[in-house]
Amino acid sequence: xxxxxxxxxxxxxxxxxxxxxxxxxxxxxxxxxxxxxxxxxxxxxxxxxxxxxxxxxxxxxxxxxxxxxxxxxxxxxxxxxxxxxxxxxxxxxxxxxxxxxxxxxxxx
Amino acid sequence: xxxxxxxxxxxxxxxxxxxxxxxxxxxxxxxxxxxxxxxxxxxxxxxxxxxxxxxxxxxxxxxxxxxxxxxxxxxxxxxxxxxxxxxxxxxxxxxxxxxxxxxxxxxxxxxxxx
Lengths: 108, 114
Known about the structure:
The structure holds two protein chains of two kinds.
Chain A: E1 4-6, E2 11-14, E3 19-25, E4 32-38, E5 45-50, E6 54-58, E7 61-66, E8 71-76, E9 85-93, E10 95-98, E11 102-107
Parallel strand pairs in A: 2-11
Antiparallel strand pairs in A: 1-3, 3-8, 4-5, 4-9, 6-7, 7-8, 9-10, 9-11
Chain B: E1 5-7, E2 10-13, E3 19-24, E4 31-38, E5 42-50, E6 53-57, E7 64-68, E8 74-78, E9 87-94, E10 104-105, E11 109-113
Parallel strand pairs in B: 2-11
Antiparallel strand pairs in B: 1-3, 3-8, 4-5, 4-9, 5-6, 7-8, 9-10, 9-11
């Protein structure tokens, strides 16, 4: 089992819809979780950090963490075509480990 | 504040050659990590340096090496290049040890081995 698992997608949603991205992890020790967005040909950029169970909201983005079930998710409300990118889930386990990423397409 | 700077942006090398990539972290950041990104493997951790010491190393052959200088700038070297080394090499910095700090990435160096 990979340390960080994500559905590779592609995930396609219409403009204005909610996009839901999920990530599961295998290491119960991990305490820090991150979501990065990567546009094609660009480097990853940090969207959200989450460290404790529950929800964390930042604008149109909400990260959810459930350590007991070992999953972390990212919700994007009112999706825009500019949100089309690959979203990487990452966790800190002595070093930062990344999932393979989920490719999101938001259709106008 | 200036971001993470990687040079060069693009490199074309032939098999058997060696290459050195450079990374300047965000001012004040002391931890520098290197990643290899390929379409098939995603982001793979190479190594992390903190205060000129390699703290962690990923599962890459010894042809991949790195170092960090007293000003936190880092270099990575790949010797005896193979076709499979073609990838985007990303450097990322954080303030200290990777406890809770997120990584901030540079724009990457695109290496093509022919």
